[in-house]
Amino acid sequence: MKRLFKNTFLIVCLSFCCFFLKTNSTFADGVKYSSSDISVIVEKNGNAHITEVWKIDANEGTEMYLGKEDLQEQTISNLRVTENGREYQNIGTWNTNESLQNKAYKSGIIKKPTGYELCWGLSSYGEHNFTVSYDMTNLAKECADGSFIYQTFIRNLADSLDEAKITIEQEDTKFTKEDTKIWAGGGAFGEIFVTDGKIVASTTSPMDAGANFVILAQFDKGIFSPAVFVNTTFGELKDNALKGSDYQKNYDRAQGRSDSQSNGNSFWRFTPALIPFIIVFISRALFLKTKRRNDNIVIHNDHFRKEYKNPEYSRSLPFENNLFATYTRLKNLSQLESDFDIIGVYLLKWIQSHRVDLVKVESKKLLKKDLENAIKFKTLKDDAAPQLEKELFDIMTSAANKDKILRKKDFEKWCKNNFDTIESWLGRYNKFGFEELKNMGAVNVHEKKSFGLFKYTQNDISQLGIKYTSEMFGFKKYLKDFTVINEREVKEVELWDEYLVYAQIFGIAKEVSKQFKDLYPQYFEERFSFDYMMDNYLMFLLINELARSYAHSVQNVYNQRFNTLAGEAFSGLGGSFGGTGGFGGSSGGGGSSGVR
Predict the structure, then answer these.
(1) Which strand (E) or helix (H) includes residue 374?
(2) Residue 41: left (phi > 0), alpha (psi -120 to 50), or beta?
(3) Which parts of 259-405 fold into alpha helices (H)?
(4) Are 513 and 525 in contact (CB under 8 A)?
(5) With the C-alpha atoms ordered 289, 290, 295, 299, is the resulting torsion angle positive or negative?
(6) How far apart are the first and last CA of the chain?
(7) Of 133, 141, 110, 130, which Cα lies nearest the Cα of 49?
């Protein structure tokens, strides 16, 4: 009891000290940011003219600067600064060492390795209303399925900003809710909408010092014709950008998951000095409860180690031929293309073992009929098959029609109405894989205490787990380089069925199967007997793609569900935004801003 009191008293004292220091620091700040109003006019080719109006009250320093760094194939030119109708002299390259008097009514740019700083003199202390305009190339960029803007317009101010607004418009076209999807965040709280043909985002509460204001927008093809093409889909870009942001947390809350790392807006805003203590002390306990409730899926010291990047060749099937453990390790290390690809792995196994047949079925396309590939389920005559594999077989059989034929679009439709069933199975599959890792000694479990108060278990990857994981990537490397390895034996062909299953989960089945054909052309004829008048190797490639397509149909449903549950703002149709989590990925326009 004495130890509990001592720990609690110490934390409370530290909290008040830090809060007092933070408060004094705030009072001593020499600049106050009242408002920022940013207007962006984007040309058809993706270039933009940007005007920023800043209202500030400065009591120290000699200049103000706006950081525009981390630019993605973007340049800035034609800087123009005005105040009260007076235009500042643009002197070109800016010198930060000049005095307040020498910087008065002048502006300039500092070119940095990753961008720019837009600078101008304060001229005098007190209140100012600056209008800053400049041109930026390639604000809008093209991707595989349209065009996008992903830009940090305000980042890391030295002090809080009372209010901010960003307006984006196209000079020739009005945006609509149908052709434009929008997100905002990075630490700001507010609303974003498409209104009067423009994107308008504005804060509803002050931005804390160091917060960001980021805009992410997707546009249909034809809205822009940008000069820069980014080789990705918008979905991939969006997932990377929103990972870790409060859009993700909103989705987690919609799913009923614990969100121990975020709290109400007013709490974070009015007690910033207590944040580290809350995270370490109170939220720590809640987080540990969440980890226990999730069956300790988190591995504490796990990361993609250097020995995984260039491993030695391994001929051993991963994790002693344990597909569950292999899946979970790949998931832990974010090495799966999609969590749902395991469904495609089992489809491939069943087709290989003739528990599922490939069939042709009629499909109607407008006024004509066509044939499409589908799968027909037989029976899973294998009492030794793992229970989770049997469950998946039953799930997919129940989605088939009365003839036990399942088309991809019918499976996707079934998943929309029964997604919880698939999601539950996938969660149990991952947890079972984690238990397998613990049983084989790849993960060690330790009892821990936080502050001597909260008991919890912590999972750590063991040296054996590191060895197994390195061998798993060594096996993947072995499969990719199969035809260039000299030491092979004929009996190894008997293992190729298993090799293809693991190649499927690694996402390299297509290239591995080609190597098998080049090395031993009779393999597909001997191991498979398809009814179609087609080369068995080509048929296998078709099956491989079909298996992946069924897995991706579940991913499509997940993406739709993800957007719906996270609310209108998450789906990009506009609404409220906010939170302490910033956008991930790489948005242009970084760098700190302030007075110096």
Answers:
(1) strand 368-377
(2) beta
(3) 265-270, 275-277, 283-293, 306-309, 318-321, 323-332, 341-352, 387-399
(4) no
(5) negative
(6) 50
(7) 133
Helices (H), 380-508: 387-399, 408-417, 419-439, 463-480, 496-506
Residue 32 phi, psi dihedral angles, 5° rounding:
-125, 130
Question: With the C-alpha atoms ordered 279, 284, 288, 293, is the resulting torsion angle positive or negative?
Answer: negative
> Could you report the per-residue pLDDT of 280-335, keeping only the tens digit for each?
445 444 444 444 334 446 787 788 888 898 899 998 999 999 999 999 999 888 88
pLDDT digits (tens, 9 = 90+) for 366-408: 566 777 778 888 887 666 788 999 999 998 899 899 999 988 8
Digit-coded pLDDT (tens) for 193-218:
888 899 999 888 888 888 888 888 99
Q: What is the three-state SS of 159-197?
A: CCEEEEEEEEEECCCCCCCCCEEEEEECECCEEEEEECC
Phi, psi of 139 (to 5 degrees): -65, -45
Which of 35, 33, 45, 123 has the alpha carbon at shortest distance from 87?
Answer: 123
Do 299 and 460 meet the contact criterion of CB atoms below 8 Å apart?
Answer: yes
Tokens 């069925």 -> residue = 497
Q: What is the DSSP string of 192-250?
A: EEEETTEEEEEESSPBPTT-EEEEEEEE-TTS---S-B-SS-HHHHHHHHHTTSHHHHH
Q: What is the pLDDT of residues 124-158, one digit of tens each?
A: 999 999 999 999 999 999 988 889 999 989 888 77
Q: What separation in angstroms does the CA of 473 have from each of 302, 419, 504?
A: 15, 32, 14
DSSP per position, 315-336: -SPHHHH-HHHHHHHHHHTT--
What token pair was written down for 357? Answer: 């047949």
Q: Which amino acid is at 594?
A: G
User: Which pair of structure tokens corresponds to residue 329?
Assistant: 């390790």
Residue 566: which pLDDT band, with cuts at 50, 70 and 90? very low
201 CB neighbour count, 10 Å cutoff? 26
Rounded to the nearest 10 degrees, the angle between the axes of helix 387-399 and helix 419-439 is: 170
Owner of token pair 């205490």? 449
- Given a contact cutoff of 8 angstroms between Cβ atoms, the answer to whether 554 and 168 are in contact is no
Give the angle subtended at the CA of 348 by the CAs of 342 and 351, to the nearest 5°.
145
φ, ψ dihedrals at 326, nearest 5°: -60, -45
Look at residue 114 and give its three-state secondary structure: coil
Given this model, what pLDDT does residue 572 score?
Answer: 61
